[in-house]
Design goal:
Blueprint lengths: L1 H15 L4 H7 L6 H4 L4 E5 L4 H16 L3 E7 H5 L3 H10 L1 E6 L13 H11 L1 H10 L6 E5 L4 H8 L4 E5 L3 H11 L35 H7 L10 E4 L3 H14 L5 E3 L29 H7 L6 E5 L8 H14 L3 E4 L13 H8 L3 E4 L4 H5 L4 E6 L3 H10 L3 E3 L6 H10 L3 E3 L12 H13 L1 H16 L8 H18 L14
Parallel strand pairs: 1-2, 1-4, 2-3, 4-5, 5-6, 6-7, 8-9, 8-11, 9-10, 11-12, 12-13
Helix pairs in contact: 1-2, 1-6, 8-9, 14-19
Length: about 500
C-alpha cells in the first residue's frame, strides 16, 4: 500500500502545478493526503553514475522502499535519459521516484571512454545542484545515502541537518587496502602489502588509479577522497557479507575506527521472493535494455555446460585482443553466452564477427546486454568469464558460479585476486587495458580448467550457501535490517527534535 501511496503522492506533485491535481486524485483512489505521506521517512539515494555503482544502489533502493521508506533515487541526467517512461512508472509503483542532476559533460560525450573527465566533472558540477535539490524536495529528506566517491554529499547533508549514510560499492578488501594508503601505512611497491583477511594480495592487485602513488594525480585523490569523511556518516554500508570477508570487516571496525560499518549484502533478490515481494530475480534492468531471448537458449542446454562471458559496461578491447578472445572461446569447445557491447572495440563493431559466428553458431548466443543475475542463476551456467567488477563478483558468488577473472581497471585486479585467493576460480593473467595481448591458447586453457574443475564448483557452491545464510527469508541481511530500523528511528527522533539520530543498534558480528 505504501508504494501506491508514494506513487499517487508523486504523481500529484507532478501535476499540481498544472491545475490537474483534483483529477489526478480521482484517477488513483488509493491516494492519501499529502500530510500522511510526509509522515514517512524520505531517503535520498545518489550513486556514482556507472553501472557497477548504480545497480547495487538501485537494489538497496528497492529493499528500502519495500521496507516502508519513501525513496528518491537521484541519477545523472545522462543516465536518466536511458530509463524508459515504462520503467520509471514501474519504479514509482514500487515506491521509488527517479530524479536527475547534471554531470557536467556535454550531452553527446562518450562516458565510456571519458571516465576520468566524468569523475572530474562530477566533483565540480554536482555539489550545487545536489544541495539545491535536497533543500527543495518534498517531503523533506530524512536521510541521504550516497556513494562514498561523492564526498560532497556529506557536506551538503550536514549543512542542512540531514543524516548521511555512505555506500561503499566495492569489496571490503578494496576498502582496507585504500585505508592503508590513506593512513600512510602502505606507500607502494617497496613495501609488502598486508591487507587484513587477504594475505594473498600483492601490490599489483592494488586499485589501478592508486598505483601511481602520486597525491597530485586527480584519480588518486578521487579514489581516496571520501575515506576521511566516513566517520561523519551515521553508517558505512557495504555490499558484502560476514562469512566472505569476516576478518577484514572486524579489523576495519576495531583498528580503523569504522564502528559504523554494516555488511548489508548480498544486495540481491532471492529466487524464492517472486511470490512474496515486489523485487524479483528476473526483473529487467532499469538503466539498460536487455536481450532476454538468451534465457530460452539456456533452457535447451545441459546443466553447468555453458560459459557466460561478460566484461561489464566500461571495458574496451583492441580488435586484435577481441579476436583472440573469440578464437579462444571457439577452441575451448564449450557452448557460451557472450555479452558483446557495440562499443567494446573502442567504439567500433568487430569486423571479423560475421565469419566467426557462422563457425560457432550452433553453440554460441551473443547479446548486446543481458539479464546477468538471471543468467548466473540458470542451471545451465557452469562458469563466468568476467572483468571482475565487484557487483558481478558478488552476483556470481551468490549464484555459486566459479569465475575466470580478467580485470580492466580500478578495483577489478583486486577482485580477480580475491576470486583466486578464495578458491572461487582463477585469474587469466594480465589486464584488458594492457597493450600486451593475452593469446587465444591461454584463454582456451584457462576456460577449460575453469569449466572442468570440481574444486571450483564445490568451493563456489559452499560460498553460495554462506551468501544465502547471510540473508533472512525475506531477503534482508541482519545488517540491512539494522540499517532500516536505524533510519526509521532517526526519522522519528528528528520529528520530535531529539538531538540523537541513530538508535544504539549493533552491526552483525
Amino acid at each position: 500500500m505504501l508504494s501506491m501511496q508514494w506513487y499517487c503522492f508523486v504523481r500529484l506533485l507532478q501535476t499540481s502545478a498544472t491545475g490537474r491535481a483534483s483529477s489526478q486524485l480521482a484517477r488513483y483512489p488509493f491516494c492519501r493526503e499529502r500530510e500522511e505521506m510526509e509522515q514517512k521517512s524520505h531517503l535520498i539515494l545518489l550513486p556514482l553514475p556507472f553501472m557497477g555503482h548504480m545497480n547495487p544502489m538501485m537494489r538497496l533502493a528497492e529493499f528500502l522502499a519495500t521496507g516502508g521508506h519513501l525513496v528518491t533515487f537521484v541519477s545523472s541526467i545522462a543516465n536518466h535519459r536511458d530509463v524508459s517512461p515504462t520503467a520509471q512508472e514501474a519504479l514509482l509503483r514500487r515506491g521509488i521516484r527517479l530524479m536527475s542532476i547534471p554531470d557536467g559533460l556535454p550531452e553527446d560525450a562518450d562516458r565510456t571512454t571519458q571516465v576520468v573527465e566524468l569523475c572530474e566533472s562530477l566533483l565540480s558540477t554536482m555539489p550545487g545542484p545536489f544541495k539545491e535539490l535536497l533543500a527543495t524536495l518534498t517531503p523533506p529528506p530524512s536521510c541521504v545515502i550516497a556513494d562514498t566517491f561523492l564526498p560532497f554529499t556529506v557536506s551538503a547533508s550536514i549543512s542542512l541537518g540531514i543524516p548521511h549514510v555512505s555506500f561503499w560499492t566495492q569489496s571490503m578488501a578494496s576498502l582496507a587496502s585504500l585505508f592503508l594508503v590513506a593512513n600512510n601505512l602502505y606507500k607502494g611497491p617497496t613495501q609488502e602489502l598486508a591487507v587484513p583477511g587477504a594475505a594473498f594480495l600483492t601490490e599489483t592487485d592494488m586499485n589501478t588509479f592508486i598505483r601511481c602513488y602520486e597525491p597530485s594525480n586527480f584519480m588518486y585523490r578521487f579514489i581516496l577522497g571520501g575515506l576521511d569523511r566516513l566517520h561523519l556518516s551515521e553508517w558505512v554500508v557495504v555490499n558484502t557479507f560476514i562469512d566472505l570477508e569476516r576478518e577484514t570487516i572486524e579489523i576495519l571496525r576495531k583498528q580503523h575506527g569504522l564502528h559504523n560499518l554494516l555488511a548489508v549484502g548480498p544486495l540481491l533478490p532471492l529466487p524464492h521472493e517472486a511470490s512474496a515481494r515486489n523485487i524479483k530475480a528476473d526483473d529487467p534492468s532499469i538503466f539498460r535494455a536487455e536481450d532476454r531471448d538468451c534465457i530460452s537458449w539456456l533452457n535447451k542446454r545441459e546443466p553447468k555446460s555453458v560459459l557466460y562471458v561478460s566484461f561489464g559496461s566500461l571495458a574496451l578491447l583492441s580488435e586484435t585482443q577481441m579476436e583472440d578472445v573469440a578464437l579462444g572461446l571457439e577452441a575451448c569447445g564449450y557452448p557460451f553466452l557472450w555479452v558483446v557491447r557495440s562499443d567494446i572495440i573502442h567504439g567500433r563493431p568487430p569486423k571479423f564477427m560475421d565469419d566467426y559466428l557462422q563457425r560457432v553458431k550452433d553453440r554460441v548466443f551473443i547479446v548486446a546486454w543481458g539479464p546477468q543475475l538471471q543468467v548466473l542463476r540458470h542451471p545451465a551456467i557452469g562458469g563466468f568469464f568476467t572483468h571482475g567488477g565487484w557487483n558481478s563478483t558478488i552476483e556470481a558468488i551468490s549464484a555459486g558460479v566459479p569465475m575466470l577473472g580478467w580485470p580492466y581497471f580500478a578495483d577489478q585486479p583486486m577482485d580477480c585476486a580475491c576470486i583466486e585467493g578464495w578458491g572461487l576460480g582463477l585469474r587469466l593473467g594480465g589486464a584488458m587495458s594492457s597493450d600486451k595481448i593475452v593469446g587465444r591458447d591461454t584463454i582456451e586453457t584457462k576456460v577449460r580448467l575453469l569449466m572442468s574443475s570440481k574444486m571450483f564448483q564445490e568451493s563456489s557452491h559452499d560460498m553460495k550457501i554462506f551468501a544465502n545464510r547471510a540473508v533472512s527469508e525475506n531477503g534482508y541481511s541482519k545488517d540491512l535490517q539494522t540499517l532500516m530500523k536505524s533510519l526509521q528511528v532517526a526519522y522519528l527522533k528528528r520529528k520530535t527534535k531529539d538531538t540523537g539520530y541513530i538508535e544504539s543498534l549493533q552491526p552483525q558480528t
